[in-house]
Amino acid sequence: MFTSNLTIVRQSGMDLTVQTLETTETNLLIRLRSEARIPARHRAAITLAAAHDRFTLTDGNGMTLMTAHMNSLSDGPFGGILYLAFPSDDQFDLGTPLTLKSENAEVIFQL
User: Fold this and answer.
1) Of 19, 34, 39, 65, which has the fewest CB atoms closer than 10 Å, so is most exposed?
2) pLDDT recorded at residue 67
3) Is there a contact between 54 and 69 (Cβ–Cβ < 8 Å)?
């Protein structure tokens, strides 16, 4: 399943836009966009702030998944894109409001 028709219920903290959610046999894949940048640790450059957070995804029943993989694009026309992969679980209910949360942001959305 792939959807870009997401409804944001509530959002707080760092500005994030949940763009898509895709399910595969092994993962739930989320694509985010954020313009928030911070100085890079090892270079005189800036990097995507959200790429330094740890994210969880929780369904409306309280089941929580931890990020398994993350990939970000800081520069160029695709700058600000963050991809998150969570392990699939048959018990996870995509039909309920979903909460994507990190140390600096929280977004509650529905499919």
Assistant:
1) 39
2) 94
3) no
